[in-house]
């Protein structure tokens, strides 16, 4: 049934966010520590476990897939509720700080990508050698 | 007439949001196919339209929540709020390939640390250029460049003025919106087309709304990989901002 999929998703989301909240409390940070990430990992693990045991049918999958498909509209709604006015009227310093941070981030993507790839190659090479 | 409309859209606000966003999406995909032959992704146009509407909403209402401040469109706040956003992001995880994730794991962690440090020091450098010299203001503005949540959390913890905190939020907002808008255009240049770079990208940018929207407009398949690392970014920033980074800046500035 479709509701089983939605329930699986709900339980994983709640468990992940709760764990993130507890983690935040333990570390002493006023933020959720990776709640969404933990929830995602839970869903991936639960999904593959249930799949192996044949406990997920097409209908159950559809319950999760609907929400995964509704993701882009949700993001569009999220864009429509941003404080764009506040960002643009924050003054040249705020704008420049934001722009520089983003530029640095973009520039670092290919650098970090290369960094990890070399490691993969060398470990693969040693693996074939040994 | 308007009264009646307002009553209905107020009572059925989420349904109104589905209708309005659905029409926006349809219009965006139509523009994408008709005027750019699909070269600019429909969702990228939809996100741009959303941001434009948010700007106009802020302009006319003077509020801080984009179109949500227009009573007719209050449901968009629910549809685009953190509850449904997180729910939908988690759902995208269902299609994740565990092996891809494992392979990118270490790079993701490095990206997280590098992302926070690079954003922070970019913010500090700009603040220095604009004449700020005290450690508290520098740290707060740098933290704002991390995300618009890390900025005020750090500022409040180390006792920054409300003016500086407002600046740090604005810097974070600019970052988040810029990531939403520019990611689909920059993606081909930086090789952002596979799960590995998506994990790195999520860790480097970190702003969950920016990463979520930017990847959605680039390739929806990459969304879970980027959002997974981005989920740890704000918390790590809140952890480092008022502690290590503040001590570092205070040590340098005296």
From TrEMBL, chain A:
Asked if the record carries the keyword Transmembrane helix, the reply is yes
User: Which keywords, in A-to-Z order, does the entry hold?
Assistant: Membrane, Transmembrane, Transmembrane helix
Q: Does the keyword Transmembrane helix apply?
A: yes
Pfam families, alphabetically? MadL
Origin: domain of life: Bacteria
- InterPro entries for this protein: Maln_transptMadL
Transmembrane regions? 30-51, 63-80, 92-112
Q: What is this protein called?
A: Malonate transporter subunit MadL
From TrEMBL, chain B:
Which residues are in the Malonate/sodium symporter MadM subunit N-terminal domain?
A: 7-252
Question: Which InterPro entries does this chain map to?
Answer: Mal/Na_symporter_MadM, Mal/Na_symporter_MadM_N
Q: Which UniProt keywords apply?
A: Membrane, Transmembrane, Transmembrane helix
Chain segments annotated as transmembrane: 12-31, 43-60, 108-130, 136-158, 165-186, 198-218, 230-249
Please state what the protein is called: Malonate transporter subunit MadM
Q: What lineage is on file?
A: Bacteria, Pseudomonadati, Pseudomonadota, Gammaproteobacteria, Oceanospirillales
Q: Which gene encodes it?
A: madM
């Amino acid at each position: 049934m479709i509701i089983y999929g939605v329930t699986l998703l709900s339980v994983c989301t709640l468990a992940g966010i709760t764990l993130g909240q507890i983690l935040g409390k333990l570390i002493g940070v006023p933020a959720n520590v990776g709640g969404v990430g933990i929830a995602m990992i839970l869903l991936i693990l639960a999904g593959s476990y249930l799949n192996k045991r044949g406990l997920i049918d097409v209908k159950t999958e559809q319950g999760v897939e609907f929400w995964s498909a509704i993701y882009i509209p949700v993001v569009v709604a999220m864009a429509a509720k941003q404080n764009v006015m506040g960002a643009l009227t924050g003054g040249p310093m705020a704008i420049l700080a934001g722009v520089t941070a983003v530029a640095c981030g973009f520039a670092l993507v290919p650098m970090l990508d290369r960094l990890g790839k070399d490691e993969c190659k060398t470990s693969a090479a040693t693996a074939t050698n040994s | 007439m308007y009264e009646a409309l307002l009553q209905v859209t107020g009572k059925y606000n989420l349904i109104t949001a589905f209708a309005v966003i659905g029409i926006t999406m349809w219009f965006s995909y139509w523009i994408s196919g008709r005027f750019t032959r699909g070269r600019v992704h429909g969702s990228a146009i939809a996100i741009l339209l959303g941001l434009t509407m948010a700007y106009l909403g802020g302009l006319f209402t003077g509020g801080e929540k984009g179109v949500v401040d227009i009573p007719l469109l209050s449901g968009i706040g629910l549809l685009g709020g953190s509850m449904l956003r997180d729910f939908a992001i988690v759902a995208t995880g269902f299609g994740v390939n565990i092996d891809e994730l494992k392979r990118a794991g270490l790079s993701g962690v490095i990206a997280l640390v590098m992302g926070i440090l690079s954003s922070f020091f970019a913010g500090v450098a700009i603040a220095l250029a604009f004449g700020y010299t005290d450690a508290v203001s520098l740290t707060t503005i740098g933290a704002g460049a991390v995300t618009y949540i890390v900025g005020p959390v750090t500022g409040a913890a180390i006792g920054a003025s409300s003016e500086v905190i407002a600046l740090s939020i604005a810097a974070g907002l600019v970052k988040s919106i810029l990531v939403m808008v520019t990611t689909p255009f920059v993606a081909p240049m930086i090789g952002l087309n596979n799960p590995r770079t998506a994990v790195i990208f999520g860790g480097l940018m970190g702003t969950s709304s920016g990463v979520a929207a930017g990847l959605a407009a680039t390739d929806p398949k990459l969304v879970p990989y980027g959002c997974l690392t981005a989920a740890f970014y704000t918390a790590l920033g809140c952890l480092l901002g008022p502690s290590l980074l503040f001590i570092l800046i205070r040590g340098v500035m005296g």
